[in-house]
Design brief:
Blueprint: H1 2-36, E1 47-52, E2 57-59, E3 65-73, E4 80-81, E5 83-91, E6 98-104, E7 107-108, E8 111-116, E9 119-124, E10 131-132, E11 136-146, E12 152-162, E13 168-179, H2 214-219, H3 223-233, H4 238-272
Length: 290
């Protein structure tokens, strides 16, 4: 009985270890799958993707560029359908400044667009019309344009080809510069404004009056001299006017005296010359008798 019970316990321990190992293996596989994301097909399938039609740099504006993503397969495998997904990441510009359309021969191809920050993913809602077979290709065509207000930036395009089970077949990326057609606007230099200086009140500090010294007293002129200097420096003063008036009166007096003397002489000469003239006597009338 004891040996049978020990055997059962050993078998239970072995079963527990086996289950633990199985659970650990499953968890390890799930963890590795979650971190790695979509894993590309095996190297034996020999899938390859290329981007064609890329210019050296994109020009913003109305210019539309056509870019093609081509996936090829080499080997002996069967044919598969392809679902395309284009990943865009921008630097120096915004996603709303980028215009991209997926086109086919029949027209525009429906896309599912998802954005996160500066990254956008454009995935086909339907499988590509073509079928990927060995030594053949499937092509996806995109039209790309940029807004006119783009000055300079960078865009990275990554084309990814998936099978119907969302298994990544191949991936190819390329980065190009985006330049604007017009130079960036320059901000006009602000006009210099001369600020009027604020009036400042000068504070006059009281200064102590210096006591007059002997030299200062000696240099101060007397009041009379000060008046004379003021009159002299004042121009035509009262004294000059008095002198001028006196001279004028003197000139008039001298003129009157000379005129009076001349008249007196003329009268005297007239009296002296009157003695030589004949004196006319009065005629007396007499009566004559007849």
């Amino acid at each position: 009985m004891a040996s049978g019970q020990d055997r059962r316990e050993d078998e239970a321990v072995v079963m527990v270890w086996r289950n633990a190992l199985r659970v650990g293996a499953v968890l390890a596989c799930l963890t590795g799958t979650g971190l790695a994301g979509p894993t590309p097909a095996s190297a034996a399938d020999r899938f390859a993707t290329e981007l064609s039609g890329l210019p050296d740099e994109f020009t913003a504006g109305d210019q539309v560029r056509t870019v093609s993503a081509v996936v090829s397969r080499k080997g002996n495998g069967g044919c598969v359908k392809v679902r395309w997904s284009m990943v865009l990441s921008v630097q120096g510009l915004r996603l709303d400044q980028v215009k991209m359309d997926r086109v086919e021969e029949t027209g525009s191809f429906p896309l599912e667009i998802r954005t996160e920050g500066a990254v956008a993913r454009l995935t086909d809602r339907q499988l590509d019309p073509g079928t990927l077979c060995p030594d053949r290709t499937v092509t996806a065509t995109y039209r790309v344009a940029f807004a006119e207000d783009v000055t300079r930036g960078r865009i990275t395009m990554a084309a990814e080809a998936y099978d119907p089970n969302l298994r990544l077949l191949a991936r190819q990326s390329a980065t190009r510069q985006v330049v604007g057609t017009a130079p960036p606007p320059t901000t006009a230099a602000p006009e210099p404004t001369t600020a009027s200086p604020e009036p400042t009140e000068e504070v006059l500090e009281p200064t102590e009056e210096a006591e007059p010294t002997e030299e200062a007293l000696a240099e101060v002129p007397p009041p009379a001299a000060a008046n004379r200097s003021a009159n002299q420096s004042g121009g035509f003063g009262v004294v000059q006017a008095a002198f001028l008036l006196g001279g004028l009166l003197l000139f008039l007096g001298v003129g009157l005296l000379m005129r009076l003397r001349q008249l007196t002489r003329t009268a005297a000469d007239g009296v002296e010359g009157g003695d030589d003239r004949p004196v006319r006597r009065p005629v007396r009338w007499t009566t004559v008798r007849r």
